[in-house]
Amino acid sequence: xxxxxxxxxxxxxxxxxxxxxxxxxxxxxxxxxxxxxxxxxxxxxxxxxxxxxxxxxxxxxxxxxxxxxxxxxxxxxxxxxxxxxxxxxxxxxxxxxxxxxxxxxxxxxxxxxxxxxxxxxxxxxxxxxxxxxxxxxxxxxxxxxxxxxxxxxxxxxxxxxxxxxxxxxxxxxxxxxxxxxxxxxxxxxxxxxxxxxxxxxxxxxxxxxxxxxxxxxxxxxxxxxxxxxxxxxxxxxxxxxxxxxxxxxxxxxxxxxxxxxxxxxxxxxxxxxxxxxxxxxxxxxxxxxxxxxxxxxxxxxx
Length: 302
Prior knowledge:
The protein is mainly α. It has 16 helices and no strands. It is globular.
């Protein structure tokens, strides 16, 4: 088990490939991913120092990054999508991906790379808090079907998947002795990254379905997904390069990792038929990024 944890970045990518090769198992796991997501978000928040996290979230730098991560990149993807003549469903899906917050696995990935996981957690939370606004923008400007947003269901999902883990974490830190909690977290924190393996495995199945139906369209989706991940990573790295290698790579990997499952859990079918296949195609380049980032970190250190 320690071997798997030590080489977790590589195993994330391997699980994405495994999910593509075993679509029946991938699709069977998909309905349970929301439970895994909630568990991962909760355990990740429990492991963070609350005071330090709140201090980071209070800084303008974090919210400046959030503006880049969501609103700016949504605009860039919209322009590129129209230039490349994306159809309406694909354009909505691509813009929704651009508005999606960072994976809650990002702090664990950043920690595995040797960077500041608290900074990554603050970026992750801020982009997640911005997600409701980003979804509304995407639906308002790019949704073509006459589907009304069920605000009660929407707000309920927001409460469960975003504010639920945050509130639970606050209560635990408020009422449980820090010493006992820290001992528990030290034991389990190295293994929380194992939960991440479920996401590439369970999400890539929808992309495999598209591949079986139309291989050429699936290839297009894969190229678009790879282009999106590369765009998010490279643009964020360039913007933050002057702040130092560690901050630039943290911003880049945080921007490249997109919590598409959370976006789908909140908005569902409103995102159109192209979102899930695109989200599935994103899994392979998304989980290649940490491996490439580790290599890039070593290359820049020379």
